[in-house]
Structures are given as structure tokens and as C-alpha cells.
């Protein structure tokens, strides 16, 4: 019942991903963490998401033929929103097809070479005039005369005089903002790296960046090892509070994992650890505080107060992260106890405030964070949406790891995609969304979230769905895989209760969106753009998200756009651009936190939001 | 032959010093490190140096009678420049009688209570509103709402949430500039201290300050233990360069001594070490770099290049100085390799640039630093004057330690003052200056620096001088004490060679002054003020300094003012005032270093300067 995966290699990234046959190319690319510009929402009308399929090109559509010349089509140019993966492909993704907000902040096209505008981290090879009688300026002033005002800590000053003289005053000045980080022998301008880190509750994602060009050199991800000490934010706060060494334990676990990931990044790219000068960290408030080893107790009780709101700067060496000995770690500013640096990253990376029109950002992770920009005001809220979407509290739920059914399609019969292409072990959140949407479409699931028994099903229900409804304990269940098809010889059932969990999670997000819109006096149809973020968000198909009512009705689908992992994208921006770093701070302070549960209509709105839409036009 | 010392106690300082009977009160006060305002140069015409002799008052002079009412005179009010110490005295020194430049930067009289204007270090007791539903601002923002924008390092952030909650959000916020240093339980506003340190080549002086009032709480001094590893700057640079552990050894020696001195300050004042939040350090460039453990090799060879020019900030804890765990150490900015933080302190503390008129500052230490402010330009030079003034390279020379003859007066017979009131061991620089001046006055020493044999002496030479000229090795010598009066049964002789050394030292300083004046086109008589600084400078009597030609002829004596230890005074200002700290940085960058030896007339000027003036009007 599994579909074979097809390899798609992205250039110049050099990354290969595996997707189901028939996957839209733009979604395939998104699953590699690369988000293309699609202002038309994938309708094929804007012509922005141009890529060149160097091999494995599909047939050009009519839209392609309007967009490209015959020669271009022969060369493999296609719109990624139109193209479908049918055979193994090599796809070239031009820098100009990336999301414009990331693009404009970051890069400035100079003779075709992308260059980072206003980098915080800089390298410059210099040949200073050595001191001589009549030119006895201090070493630091000699450097400043060439590179501008500098600060230096005493460790750097202890190193500097010897370094300058051994190298006859020739070498590469490394600065971060106004701080002198090193004076390296020879010209090392080409080796200037930073790491951007998405510090997820469940998953850690790290990206090695070439700061001079803004390009990604390597990517690593792994499960956050803190999971073993607590499944979600609250259980980790409890672990930190209740055990004598709890906080240290959580801190050490994640820092060690990050240090290992940096090792992987270096191995993959051939970059030396000491040529990484900076790491930017973006996560929710609790994850960021645990990372810094700041007590999280106050985040675990009403009114959920964080310690710091502004960015935190740490010495990497003191933290136990091996990069350059004077490398710095920047932790993103936060908005509040439950709206953290990852949300700030999202606001930054999506360029949320760059248009005047009302825009909504929904970041679906273990928590759901919602940000509304309307009438020059930024409001943000957090919902406890997480567990179901992440596969938790679902009978056979699991994370999107090997063995997880991550996609469900129905086309005469049920098609499943399993991560790692192995026998399925369980299902993750995106598959649950897919399944619920399909069952709603076919009338197997009612808008109240009730599974119908076989005898109550409409005639139109296809037999491959109908036969899967079985009795289970006190209710019904849907058989996703028979025991013969499953690892461990147990069928994978999705129970009535599981659909209730999904209803709760979906309802929480929709209620949050509804309340933010209501408070701002904005109607769903007034939203110019709805941006869906989060590693998980990326895997949900827009049509299915709308079908289950994740967003309030009335939002035209072409206004919904996937933004990929915006937490990582924001960390990347903060690593590369001083302007972006300053913007992040301003955005964090400017955003107003809305406590959803204190809204008088919360209960009513939440109850309404739990009803699946009657009439999802797919 | 020794004179008894008389105790003078200064209030509100609570400090007692011992001086020779007949010492002018203003000089007695200066020897305690307290410099009074005397714009008239001690002529008694300005009436600024008002003090109240609570006991031991001398007769009021005519000048006093013009200055004060009869009642005030009965209460003990006198001008310190007119008063003479005749019996043990208790003297009240009002804040308003202090040097105005130090006074105006530092203090603002608020209802009679001195308050430091613009302190960098502040304490404020706050009672914050604890977080509640609807008021979930971050801990740091909660503090910022009360005390303004704050930065905090991660150590502070780790401590903060617990500290706030244990104390129900009530306590004392400690900030240094914009940095949060601590949140202390209870109201500790009254306990806010800093240490100012004069890092001399020979002597370390440390002052414990109450930052809120600017007042001195305790004072400690000791010989710089680095002396054991090298007598002067150059020999220490050599020690650091030639031995594997040399730099560390020098660093450790001075840091340990400073840490012990802080212990003494705490013991004397009853102040807790962790209530000291800051230390400012002022010394010559080499001493400052050794203190920071920054390689000094380049300071030991042409063109004598320092590593850093701007101030250096270190964590006290990292340095091994036990003050508050997050206390900071600020090391003064420097002008050049041989014009260091001590000179910047001098420019700052004397308010050198605050008047428009040409002003000269001469700091007499192991090196002589000279600064000229004229026509809005600041120029500075350094001369290798030191050894003789500090007692080095003098046959029986020694530092102003116990057993040193530090003062020589001639009044029918020779009067000597010995430090510690013990049998003399040798003589220090100030005694050498006194002696040379007396011998020049009486024609025993010629202006070429030659001691005359008894048979060539003018008839007028008093017998107590005449009998002391003796033959010694290949030349003559002057017997300061007979062997019977001396510790160790050896007479203390001052040889012809010793007077040559003094000639060299004096000549170096006068040549430096002459060259700076020449380059600026300023005549000596155009100088509005000549400020003499340095712990040693303070002990030289103005008349004797002029008699031996330490300064070019033509400077009216009433324009010469003693400033005391301006290195310490500058460190004190930098510890207390943010404005002063910023000014120090600006002054350092604004001052132009003049390499005296590169002046084409240097040799001629230096040779001329070695001739003692013919005609010293005493």
C-alpha cells in the first residue's frame, strides 16, 4: 500500500529529498526547507516560482507555455507550482525565486553574486603599516584606522600583539558588530561562517551559513534530546523545577546535542569549527531559557512570565559550544512567556509588517502561535494546539520520524506515504489532517467530528473507505493499515477519540485566529495574506487544512502561503544581518501579547471552532 | 637631628597624618591626598582654601582677619595656605574647599549633602508590582520600567527570577552604566562602593569610595610587588619577554597585591567585599598592560607601541580580584606607549582643558609625563626622568619608605625628616631636591652641578653645611648624617655623582617642558597655571623645585599648584562619574603624543636644561 519515493535533488543547494510521485514540485522543494515565492498562492498567475528541471522535467503546462519561451521550456524551465514530480529530478532553484522578504533583507545582487547587506559578522584582509618612529599608534588604533571603531575583550587583546607581529601586520580582521573577534594569519575572507539554530521543543534544526554570501553550506537536524526528560514545554519546566539537577540536565542535554550538530555541519561542509564565529538561536521562550540555563519556573505558572525579553548574548566557549574561541551566541528576543523567539523570527522572516494590508501568520508547532498584523498593530497569541498535530495524545500517533505515515491521499483507494519507506509504525499529525479531510469530504466523518458506522454511511462512500470503519472498544475506529501491513503486527487504527483530539487542536488554532481577528476588527476575507509556518505546517496540504477548518472560513485559498520553518529563517537573518537583528528586537517589543483565555467570548468561540466546516470546497 | 612629627587629623575624612612642625597646613593636607583649591597659588589673596581648625589652631594672620569674621576666627576658620602646623590639630575640610575641577564634575550640592552627578554605578531600592494575569511582562522589562533600559549578562539572568520571587519583587537594583549587576534583598542603597586604584610602577594606592556621596571610605597603599621582578618599566618588560612565565608572574604579583589591598580597605571601613561593584585602574601603559596580562614586548622597543588605546573592561572575577561576583574592572585609556592612563587621569582630574588659558601639567613619577594645553591643543610627552626622583641610581637613594630621609630644611642647622621617625637608612628623591636647593642657595653647589671643596666655599656658607663637605673616592660628597646617627653605622653621603643624576632627571623634565612650550609657541610666562602632580611631586616644595630648575625660568611661583596624586584622582572620577569616564576616553584620543627625542633641538635644549638656574629667588 506504500508508494515509492522519488528523489529530487536541488541545486545549488546540493540537497536531495524524497517525495511521493505526483507531489507538486513547490511542495517537494518546501520539504527541503526552501520556500519559493508564490504571491498568487500557487495558481500559476504570478510566474514567480521559476525553477529549471535539469533532468526529470515534467510536461510543460499551458501556464508554463505562457510564462516561458519554447527554448526555455526545452531547457527545463517550469513554474514549481505547476510542475509535478513524476521521475527522479535535478532542479535548479535560482536565488531570485526565493521568498522576497528574506531576499530583500539579505541580499543585494552585485554582478549576479548575492552579497549580504549590512552583515554583523565581517572579515577583511588587511596589510597594515607596521609601527615606526613617528607612527607609534596602538595596535587597536592601527586596526581601527582601517576597519572602523572596534571593541575588544581582554582575551583578544592578550592575543593581538603577538598575532600582528608574527604575521608582519598582515592578516584577516574578523569583527562581529563592533567587536574584534580575531586577527587571523593570511587571507581567510572566504571562510566566514555562522550557525542558525531552530531550537524546537521536539526538533532541533541547524544551518551552517556562509556569511559573505548568505548561502547555506550544510543543514543538520535531530530530535531535541530533552524529549527524554519531558515531552512538552510544561513537563520540562516541571522537570527543571522539581529535580535538584533538573535545569542543568536539560541545559546540558540540548547544548551537547547542538555541539554535536555543529560537528556534523562541519563534517558535511568541510568547514573548520573555528571558522564559525556566531550562532543565533530561535525557539520558544521556555526552550530558549533552558538553553541559557535560566530558571523556567515562572514560565510554568500563571501568568507565565519570562526572565528576559531582549536578546541574550552568551560566550559560546562558556556555554560549551565549540566554535571560534571568541564566538558569540545570540538568543532571539521574546514577546512573552508563550510567544517566544521563534515567533519573533517568524514575524521577521516573513516580512509580516512590510505590507500595509492585514496579514496573519500561523506557526504550527508543539504550540500554535498566531500573529496578526493589521492597522499597524501587531498582536500575538499562543494556543495549546500542539499535541495532536505533533502526533501526541493520538492512539498510534508519533513524530514525523522513520515509520510514520506522514501523508494520506485518497484516489479510488487509500495511498499512504511512510517516512523512510519502511513498514508503518504509526501516523504523524499531517497524516491525521489528511485523513480527517478525506473522511469529511466523503461523509465518513461528520462536521461534529463523529465517525459514522458502516451502516450509516452515505451510498457514495468508496468501498476502500467503507470497509475500514470498524468497532473499537466503546466506539468506532478507522483502519489505516491492516496488521499484516504494519510493523509489529498491530493494525494502525485512528479512533473516534483521536478525531476528537484533532478537533480540539484545530479548534484551538481557529479560535485563536478568530479572537485576534475579532479584536482587530478584521474579517477573514479582509486578510491579504495568511502565512502558514512551522516544520509541520509545511507538510499540511492547504486544501486539507481548510477542509478541517484550521483557519476560519472565508479566506480565499490563494491567499494562504507556506513559509516553511520561519524560526530557522529568522535565526538565519539574525545571523547574517545587523539590520535584521535590530528589527527583531523592535518587532518583539512592538508585538502585543493577547491572552486568549481572558477574552470573554473565548469559550463560545472555542466551542464553535471545534465544529468542522460543513462545506469544504476542495 | 630629627624633628618630631605632629599629628593632624582631617575631618570628615577621619584620616591622621604626621608632619614636621612648621609645615604649611595646605601641604600637610596635600600629603593626605587631599588637594585644596588655591587659584592664587597660596598667596592668600583668593580666600578659597578655607578650613576650620577644631583644635590646634594657629594664630590668625592679617589675611585671615580680612577673610573671616571675628566669630569665624574664634571658631577656628583659617586659610590653609596661611596656617602653619604648630601643635597637634583637628582640621575640618569642607567639600567646597576642594579643587574645583574635581568638585564640579563630581558633586552637586543638594541640601548640603554632596551627591555624585551622573554616577555610572547606581543603586535603587524598588518595590515592583508582582506579575499577575494581564501583567505578564518579563522580569527584566519589569525592572526596566522602573530604572530604565538595562543589559544583563547570562549569569545575572540565571540569578534574577529566583531573587525577585524570594524577595517578593522588593529589593535593590544595582546597575553600572546600563548593565544590571545585581538585585539585592532589602534596601542596600547605602552600601554602594567602588575602588579607585593608582597602579604605580613603584607604589600601589587604592581608595575605597562611597559612590553615592563620592566620599573616600578608606585608603591603602603598598609597594608594587613587581618591584622584586624588575625595578623599572623596562626591566619588567624584559622580565615578561625573556621568561616563559614572566608575564603571568608579573600579572599575578600585582593582582594578588591588589586583592589584599581590597581586603585591607574592607577591614578598615567595615565594607563587605561584595558591596564593591567596580574598580577603576590608572597607571602607565606598561603597568596597565601587565595588570591585564597583555604582552608588553612592543612597549620595550622603538617605537614603543601599546596594544590598546581605549579603556579595557574586565570581569573582576575572571581577573582574580574578589569584589562583587559581577563586578567590573575599568582600565583607563592611554595616549601612547609612554603616556598612559595615569596621564589621562591627570588631564581629567586637573580639569586641564576647562580653562582657555595655556596650562601645563607635570606628573613626576618613575617617568615624568608632561602635558600642555594651549590654543585648544593637548600635547603630551614622556621623559625618562624617574630614577633619581624615586631615589634610584642615587648612592644612598631609596623609596619614600620607613627610614628614608624625605625632607631636608636648613635653618641655621640642617633639619631632617625621616619616614617612620626611625634612624635614617637613606634618602628619597624629595630630600635630594631639598638638599640640592639648599646647597645651591648657599653656594655649596654651583649652577653646573659641581660640589665645591671646603676651601673654595664662599665665606657666607654656614658652618653646619661647610663641615659636611668631605672627600669621597675620586670626588666630593655631602654628609647628610654621620655614621653614629644612621641605621647600620654607615654615614649617609650624597655624592657628586648623585647630584649629576639629579641634574639629568631635572634636565629631562625641563627639556620636555621647554620642547612642548616651544612647539606650541607658548612662553613660560604665558602659562596660566603649572600643575605639579604625582605622589612624589607633592612632597617637593615649590621653592626648591624652582631653585633646582625643574621648570623653565619665568614661571611666577603663584601659578604653580600641587595637585597631589592625579592618577588616583582620575581613577576616582572614572569610578564615580559616567561623564568623567567618557571625558577620559575623549581626552586620551584628543591628546597628541610628542616624541621629544625626535625634536631637532632636543640635544641642545637638554644640555641647557641641565644647568641649574643661576639666580633662584627663594
Kindly, what is the distance between the CA atoms of the first and last residues of chain A, rounded to a whole number of angstroms?
25 Å
Structural class of chain A: alpha/beta
Low-confidence stretches of chain A: 100-115
CATH H level of the largest domain in chain A: which superfamily? Domain of unknown function (DUF4445)
Number of helices of chain A: 19
Major sheet size, sense and barrel closure of chain A: 6 strands, mixed
Number of strands of chain A: 28
Description:
The structure is a homodimer of 618-residue chains. Chain A is an alpha/beta fold and 618 residues long. Chain A is built from 19 helices and 28 strands. In chain A, strand 9 and strand 10 (179-185) form a beta hairpin. The model of chain A is unreliable at 100-115 (pLDDT under 50). Chains A and B meet through helix 5, helix 6 and strand 15 of A and helix 5, helix 6 and strand 15 of B.
Question: Any descriptors?
Answer:
homodimer, 618 residues, alpha/beta, Ubiquitin-like (UB roll), Nucleotidyltransferase, domain 5, 5 domains, 6-stranded mixed sheet, 28 strands, 26% strand
Task: Give the helices and strands, then pairings.
The structure is a homodimer of 618-residue chains.
Chain A: E1 5-11, E2 15-20, H1 25-30, E3 50-55, H2 62-67, H3 70-75, E4 77-79, E5 89-92, H4 100-106, E6 107-110, E7 113-116, E8 121-127, H5 139-147, H6 154-166, E9 170-176, E10 179-185, E11 193-199, E12 203-210, E13 215-223, H7 233-242, H8 246-269, E14 276-283, H9 285-292, E15 312-315, H10 316-319, E16 328-331, H11 341-349, E17 359-364, E18 368-374, E19 377-383, H12 386-389, E20 404-411, E21 413-418, E22 426-427, H13 429-441, H14 463-466, E23 469-472, E24 475-481, E25 492-495, H15 496-520, E26 529-533, H16 542-547, E27 560-564, H17 566-576, H18 578-590, E28 592-593, H19 602-609
Parallel strand pairs in A: 1-5, 11-14, 14-16, 17-26, 19-28, 20-22, 26-27
Antiparallel strand pairs in A: 1-2, 3-4, 3-5, 6-7, 8-9, 9-10, 11-12, 12-13, 15-16, 17-18, 18-19, 20-21, 23-24, 24-25
Helix pairs in contact in A: 7-8, 11-17, 11-18, 15-19, 17-18
Amino acid at each position: 500500500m506504500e508508494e515509492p519515493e522519488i528523489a529530487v535533488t536541488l541545486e545549488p543547494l546540493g540537497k536531495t529529498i524524497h517525495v511521493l510521485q505526483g507531489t507538486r514540485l513547490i511542495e517537494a522543494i518546501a520539504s527541503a526547507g526552501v520556500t519559493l515565492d508564490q504571491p498568487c498562492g500557487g495558481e500559476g498567475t504570478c510566474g514567480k516560482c521559476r525553477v529549471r528541471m535539469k533532468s526529470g522535467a515534467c510536461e510543460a503546462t499551458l501556464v508554463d507555455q505562457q510564462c516561458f519561451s519554447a527554448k526555455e521550456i526545452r531547457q527545463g524551465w517550469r513554474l514549481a507550482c505547476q510542475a509535478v514530480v513524476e521521475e527522479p529530478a535535478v532542479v535548479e532553484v535560482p536565488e531570485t525565486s526565493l521568498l522576497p522578504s528574506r531576499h530583500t533583507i539579505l541580499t543585494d545582487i552585485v554582478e549576479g553574486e548575492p552579497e549580504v547587506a549590512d552583515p554583523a559578522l565581517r572579515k577583511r584582509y588587511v596589510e597594515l603599516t607596521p609601527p615606526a618612529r613617528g607612527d607609534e599608534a596602538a595596535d587597536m588604533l592601527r586596526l581601527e584606522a582601517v576597519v572602523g571603531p572596534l571593541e575588544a575583550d581582554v582575551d583578544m587583546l592578550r592575543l593581538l600583539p603577538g598575532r600582528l607581529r608574527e604575521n608582519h601586520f598582515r592578516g584577516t580582521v574578523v569583527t562581529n558588530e563592533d567587536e574584534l573577534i580575531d586577527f587571523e594569519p593570511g587571507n581567510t575572507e572566504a571562510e566566514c561562517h555562522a550557525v542558525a539554530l531552530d531550537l524546537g521543543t521536539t526538533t532541533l534544526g541547524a544551518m551552517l551559513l556562509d556569511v559573505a554570501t548568505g548561502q547555506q553550506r550544510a543543514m543538520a537536524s535531530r530530535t531535541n534530546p530533552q524529549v527524554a526528560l519531558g515531552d512538552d514545554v510544561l513537563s520540562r519546566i516541571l522537570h527543571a523545577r522539581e529535580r535538584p539537577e533538573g535545569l542543568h540536565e536539560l541545559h546540558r542535554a540540548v547544548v551537547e546535542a547542538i555541539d554535536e550538530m555543529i560537528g556534523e555541519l562541519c563534517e558535511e561542509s568541510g568547514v573548520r569549527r573555528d571558522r564559525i564565529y556566531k550562532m543565533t538561536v530561535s525557539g520558544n521562550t521556555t526552550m530558549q531559557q533552558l538553553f541559557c540555563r535560566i530558571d523556567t519556573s515562572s514560565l510554568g505558572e500563571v501568568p507565565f512570565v519570562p526572565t528576559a525579553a531582549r536578546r541574550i548574548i552568551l560566550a559560546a566557549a562558556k556555554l560549551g559550544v565549540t566554535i571560534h574561541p571568541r564566538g558569540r551566541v545570540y538568543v532571539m528576543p521574546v514577546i512573552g512567556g508563550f510567544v517566544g523567539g521563534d515567533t519573533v523570527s517568524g514575524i521577521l522572516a516573513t516580512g509580516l509588517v512590510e505590507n500595509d494590508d492585514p496579514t496573519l501568520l500561523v506557526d504550527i508547532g508543539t504550540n500554535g502561535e498566531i500573529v496578526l498584523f493589521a492597522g499597524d498593530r501587531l498582536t500575538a497569541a499562543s494556543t495549546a494546539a500542539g499535541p495532536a498535530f505533533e502526533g501526541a495524545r493520538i492512539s498510534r500517533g508519533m513524530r514525523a520520524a522513520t515509520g510514520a505515515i506522514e501523508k494520506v491521499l485518497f484516489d479510488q483507494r487509500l495511498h499512504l506515504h511512510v517516512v523512510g519507506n519502511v513498514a508503518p509504525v504509526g501516523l504523524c499529525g499531517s497524516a491525521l489532517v489528511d485523513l480527517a479531510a478525506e473522511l469529511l469530504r466523503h461523509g465518513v466523518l461528520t462536521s461534529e467530528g463523529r465517525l459514522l458506522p458502516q451502516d450509516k454511511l452515505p451510498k457514495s462512500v468508496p468501498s476502500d473507505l467503507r470497509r475500514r470503519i470498524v468497532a473499537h472498544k466503546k466506539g468506532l475506529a478507522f483502519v489505516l493499515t491492516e496488521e499484516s501491513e504494519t510493523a509489529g503486527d498491530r493494525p494502525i487504527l485512528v479512533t473516534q477519540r483521536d478525531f476528537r483530539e484533532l478537533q480540539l487542536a484545530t479548534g484551538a488554532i481557529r479560535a485563536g485566529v478568530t479572537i485576534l481577528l475579532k479584536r482587530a476588527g478584521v474579517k477573514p476575507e479582509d486578510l491579504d495574506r495568511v502565512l502558514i509556518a512551522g516544520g509541520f505546517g509545511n507538510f499540511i496540504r492547504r486544501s486539507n487544512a481548510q477542509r478541517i477548518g484550521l483557519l476560519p472560513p472565508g479566506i480565499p485559498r490563494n491567499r494562504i502561503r507556506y513559509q516553511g520553518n520561519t524560526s530557522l529563517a529568522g535565526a538565519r537573518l539574525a545571523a547574517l544581518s545587523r539590520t535584521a537583528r535590530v528589527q527583531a528586537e523592535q518587532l518583539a517589543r512592538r508585538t502585543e501579547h493577547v491572552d486568549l483565555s481572558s477574552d470573554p467570548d473565548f469559550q463560545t468561540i472555542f466551542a464553535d471552532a471545534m465544529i468542522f466546516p460543513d462545506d469544504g470546497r476542495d
